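Inverse folding, one chain.
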């Protein structure tokens, strides 16, 4: 392998330009999901009795079954309420999504370093296996992005359902009592989580598109079949 020699030319090619986009979208994917924290305000309209208010904080990694909704030995709307937690656990899908985004970020950064400093070795036809490795890893990341983005989209919907008015009413027993109405009067802004799902599928599109450009760097694409030999016909003079 030759020494590091900075060459910005690969950034003008689709192979390098898409890698920059993959690097940036990975940052937005794990940043918009892993840093989330929000608060829901739940109001209990008790029908003639003083209304009650509950504050619920929701944060990554969204282990909702560990988030306390009502502490033990509480009284709401004049009724005793047992210790109650939110329902659901989207931690696995969220943590896998963030982990994949971080791995994609690290791989894109490492690959960019190879493109910009070792492109001659990368494209060396004498036994270089980097293009094949890059090709297979690109396919692997595209597949993983499809799986983890779909799982996180479903996990996010579960979070929305569990923390919405219908989910709170089904979870909190006092909400089912006659004359008591429970409503989420202020919801946490989950726009950043929706953005993370969008960037997850955008990563999928980018990595799928990059499969073709990494394949073009492999010997399998550049290899041309040997030309068939065409028999030469000899001109035989016609007797007069």
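Residues assigned per position:
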């Amino acid at each position: 392998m030759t020494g590091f020699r900075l060459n910005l030319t690969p950034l003008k090619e689709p192979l390098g330009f898409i890698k920059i986009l993959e690097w940036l979208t990975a940052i937005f994917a794990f940043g918009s999901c892993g840093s989330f924290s929000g608060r829901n305000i739940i109001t209990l309209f008790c029908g003639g009795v003083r209304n009650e208010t509950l504050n619920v904080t929701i944060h990554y990694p969204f282990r909702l079954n560990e988030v306390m909704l009502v502490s033990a030995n509480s009284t709401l709307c004049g009724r005793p309420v047992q210790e109650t937690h939110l329902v659901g656990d989207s931690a696995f899908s969220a943590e896998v999504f963030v982990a994949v985004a971080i791995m994609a970020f690290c791989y894109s950064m490492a690959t960019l370093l190879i493109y910009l400093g070792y492109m001659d070795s990368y494209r060396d036809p004498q036994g270089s296996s980097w293009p094949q490795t890059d090709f297979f890893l690109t396919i692997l990341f595209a597949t993983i992005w499809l799986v983890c983005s779909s799982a996180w989209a479903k996990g996010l919907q579960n979070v929305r359902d569990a923390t919405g008015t219908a989910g709170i009413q089904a979870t909190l027993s006092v909400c089912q009592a006659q004359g008591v109405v429970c409503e989420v009067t202020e919801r946490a802004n989950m726009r950043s989580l929706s953005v993370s799902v969008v960037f997850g599928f955008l990563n999928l599109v980018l990595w799928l598109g990059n499969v073709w450009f990494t394949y073009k760097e492999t010997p399998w694409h550049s290899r041309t079949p040997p030309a068939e030999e065409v028999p030469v016909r000899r001109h035989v003079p016609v007797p007069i």
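DSSP finds seven helices and seven strands in the chain. The longest strand covers residues 37-45.
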